Amino acid sequence: MMTESIISIQSVMWLFLATFMIHDFEEIIFVEYWMKRNYPKMSNKIPGPARKLVKNMSEVTSAQFAVAVCLEFIVFVPVTYLAVEHQNYIFFIGFNALLFIHVFTHLGQSIFLKSYTPGVVTALFVTLPYSIYLFNRMVSEGLVSFKEVLIYAPVGLVLLPLVMLGHKLGKMVIRD
């Protein structure tokens, strides 16, 4: 493939940080405005188990959301460094697998609500193609096997408490 000779796998891996930020910039920019405008009319459509989570998100400001994103980014930099420079792929693949799955949560939300939701555009047009390309390149270049991708993917779940902590910190640090 032509792109394989033009873009090194190391560069593709470092692009994880850019991909993450492009996606999260869309969420940061639109989440507060979108929630204020749409939460009242969608709140009755939300299934019981998700109601509390969505209610909490409806009260998040863009600045508070940015705190959570910043915390994630701080973790992603050394994880990416370890993958690129030391071939330690476990967390890198886990986090990228979680980001890949996250695409479908955005898509599902938009389908369920029959409208745009913050993050869906970059999820579909940046994150999805990047994730597919990244995993394909890593497997085709023999850095990991497809089986290892599947085995390492659940490691990404360690990110969930960090995200929750980030949102808690955001509310503590930036008050309305």
Automatic annotation (TrEMBL):
Keyword Metal-binding appears in the UniProt entry = no
Transmembrane segment boundaries: 12-35, 65-83, 89-107, 119-137, 149-166
* InterPro entries xrefs: HXXEE (IPR025671)
Q: Which UniProt keywords apply?
A: Membrane, Transmembrane, Transmembrane helix
Protein name, as recorded: HXXEE domain-containing protein
Q: From which lineage does this chain's organism come?
A: Bacteria, Bacillati, Bacillota, Bacilli, Bacillales
